[in-house]
Amino acid sequence: MTRDEALELVEEKVSNKNLIKHMLAVEVCMEVFAEHLGEDRERWTIAGLLHDLDYDKTKDNFPRHGFETVEMLEGKGLPEDVLQAIVSHTGHVERTSVMDKVLYAIDPTTGLIVAAALMHPDKKLAKLDTDFIMRRFKEKRFAAGANREQIRTCSLFGVELEDFIGICLKGMQSISEELGL
Description:
Low-confidence stretches: none
Shape: globular
Structural class: mainly alpha
CATH architecture: Orthogonal Bundle
Largest sheet: none
């Protein structure tokens, strides 16, 4: 499946524009981490882009989240490791590969970064730096939905928290227009 085909599928299956922006943010973060870790960029970005494809169908049935996406992608020729990463980002199955672990950590991190951008006086990703986000990270009430323990799992693939957030921020800044930030 090409990136264009995946994006077309996202636009067909996902009705919430902010969720699509989240999926694009996760995609670009997966891309920069694939490059950072010397992994397969194409596989990682497709996993990031498609990870919440089933959200409209599963938002009220979380135990099916991820599994529905895999069913939707049957017959589309996606590698097994991409499908595994999609299912494992939900916490329903064990995360075994580096791709699984990175996607799991990135998912809430994009929300934290977006929330930081929205509270910044300029409301732009370009104006953010890692220190600003790290200060917000320490505020428990700030972006409470961005699970800090999940973000901290970046240590499981050998990346320190501050570096992890900085790398994600850099990726998201590179598509700030698409994200509207």
